[in-house]
Amino acid sequence: MNSKSVSPQTYLAIHNGVLFPMLMYDSENWAWQKKNESRINAVEMLSLHNRCRVSRKDRCRNSDVRERCGLKEDEVIRVERDMLQWFGHLERMNESRLTKQMYRANVCDGKVGEGCPG
Fold it and tell me: What is the distance between the alpha carbons of residues 12 and 16, in angstroms, rounded to a whole number?
């Protein structure tokens, strides 16, 4: 991937078609945390810096690197959009579907005991 013989178009196709679908598999179902966002951004920027052959020492802004690579939005925004799409899908889903029932289920109906379990 770091070879200069790989064209920018090929690298972008691999980036969009293999790397991030693999990294983001099932991300719409994640419980979103701030640490996920920083980790995703770090992996994305490492990949884009390699693609554009920009060193971290060059101190370019992430937005400039993304623009140089021809990307309009970062992966975090794509994940958040996918999460909202999944939520909308769940809301429109028929109430008899198991997925909808699990989504609506109340996890903790009973009383929680005190102390160490067992």
Answer: 6
